[in-house]
Design brief:
Layout lengths: L21 H28 L12 E6 L3 E5 L2 E5 L2 E5 L25 H12 L7 H9 L7 H19 L8 E9 L10 E10 L4 E10 L3 H13 L7 E4 L3 H10 L4 E4 L1 H10 L6 H12 L4 H15 L4 H8 L2 H4 L10 H4 L3 H6 L1 H4 L11 H16 L11 H6 L2 E3 L2 E3 L7 H4 L1
Parallel strand pairs: 5-8, 8-9
Antiparallel strand pairs: 1-4, 2-3, 5-6, 6-7, 10-11
Length: about 425
């Protein structure tokens, strides 16, 4: 049972380092005890699975054998001291003759930090923390600097660079991306080259899962930078996607028309709304946001076109530049209506990219000690790789194959006989 020993009334812990709060100690102690119970249960289950196996004299071949030496593991709850039970497994592999060994799936022998801690490192680097700053910063926050030396961080960075290079050279002929999102992420927090940006493409596989397609460093989202990336993907076997969704940056679209001319273009409503509001006075923002929502959230394309005309009538006389941002790209902004209604929420914006870099892209201050382009690219790759495990598949994933096959959808509904008009069109 976990007990709390009150202090002397001064707000400090009795017999503890004053820098550590009582609540932190409670959380860490609870985490330590739960981890210890989980490890013990894992070992007990392993031993019970082979309880029937006996050696000479009828003795069990798999038994407990004390504990390994204690070690600290960095977790999201802080530094937790762990003592792993030891297993004596006397069984041998019939094929090789080698002794079999128990390895904990919860806490492998090499583990000194949890995956969540590893995910934090790239994010902190992109925010401006240098490798030499990780030890004092995280050490104070987690209560221990074990496993966070500058040399360890440097080795991790080198490993991540190698992983990023391997990813960038992989074969794409075996994967089919029906749709993709593209965006340029300006991460000048750590990099001296202010014009450098990260070119990101995320695609939808045939089974509906989202996956990072490509990540590269470019020059201000230029057409040539995007074209180089798209050409490289094509050389590695990538098929032309059915639809590409992105913001209004001309560089990507001119490159897409050159490399994959058959791909349809869709504009991101998140970026477009921001562009429209930037051309309007703040007093007009509430009404404009509501009017724009009437367009992209309409039940079908005819209603969306009617809402666009209403927006032009309301704001065209006073703010023609703001209205032109909608009317000039209206076809691309409403292209999602030509695809399954279940997919509209995914095709209206570049949200998979926006949400991944939300904590990084809006930072504009360049800190001291800027990092290299290779390091920044590797850190961004690890950031996306960590986030990718949490991405959910698109709605109605079974319809992705129909989209790739060229099936006709009108106002979100599948048309089995494209030559015939739907009821909505006839009306």
């Amino acid at each position: 049972m976990l007990t709390v020993v009150p202090g002397d009334g001064s707000g400090r812990e009795a017999g503890k380092d004053n820098s550590r709060s009582l609540i932190d100690e409670i959380v860490r102690e609870g985490a330590r005890r739960m981890l210890a119970e989980a490890l013990a249960a894992e070992v007990d289950a392993y031993i019970a699975a082979f309880a029937a196996e006996r050696g000479e004299g009828g003795r069990r071949l798999v038994v407990r054998n004390g504990y390994h030496q204690s070690r600290e593991v960095l977790t999201s709850a802080g530094a937790v001291e762990v003592t792993v039970p030891r297993v004596n497994d006397k069984r041998t592999d019939p094929a090789t003759g080698e002794r079999k060994r128990f390895s904990s799936a919860i806490l492998p022998p090499w583990c000194r930090k949890t995956p969540k801690i590893t995910e934090v490192l790239p994010l902190l680097y992109l925010h401006g923390l240098s490798s030499g700053d990780f030890v004092p910063a995280l050490g104070q926050f987690l209560g221990s600097a074990a496993g966070l030396s500058a040399a360890v961080i440097t080795r991790l960075t080198e490993t991540w660079r190698a992983e990023q290079r391997t990813f960038a050279a992989r074969d794409l002929s075996g994967v089919d991306y029906a749709c993709l999102w593209a965006d340029g992420i300006h991460v000048n927090i750590r990099l001296e080259e202010h014009k450098l940006c990260l070119l990101v493409m995320i695609g939808v596989r045939a089974d509906g899962r989202k996956e990072l397609i490509a990540l590269a460093d470019g020059y201000r989202e230029s057409a040539e930078s995007w074209a180089d990336l798209l050409r490289d993907c094509a050389r590695r076997g990538m098929r032309a996607p059915v639809l590409a969704v992105g913001d209004g940056a001309l560089g990507f679209w001119s490159a897409l028309r050159e490399v994959f001319p058959q791909t349809r273009e869709g504009r991101c409503w998140f970026h477009k709304t921001a562009n429209v509001l930037a051309a309007l006075p703040k007093s007009a923002h509430p009404g404009a946001k509501k009017a724009l929502a009437e367009i992209w959230n309409a039940e079908d394309k005819p209603h969306a076109l009617a809402a666009a005309k209403a927006f032009e009538a309301a704001y065209g006389a006073k703010f023609p530049q703001a209205v032109a941002k909608i009317t000039s790209d209206l076809g691309q902004l409403l292209v999602f209506y030509d695809y399954p209604a279940d997919h509209w929420v995914h095709l209206r914006t570049t949200n998979p990219i926006e949400s991944t870099f939300a904590t990084v892209r809006h930072r504009t201050k360049v800190t001291k000690g800027p990092g290299s382009r290779a390091a920044g690219l590797a850190m961004a790759f690890k950031l996306i790789e960590s986030a990718q495990d949490r991405w959910r598949a698109v709605n109605a994933p079974h319809l992705v194959a129909l989209v790739r096959a060229g099936a006709t959808f009108i106002n979100g509904k599948l048309v089995e006989r494209p030559g015939e008009k739907t009821q909505s069109e006839a009306a």
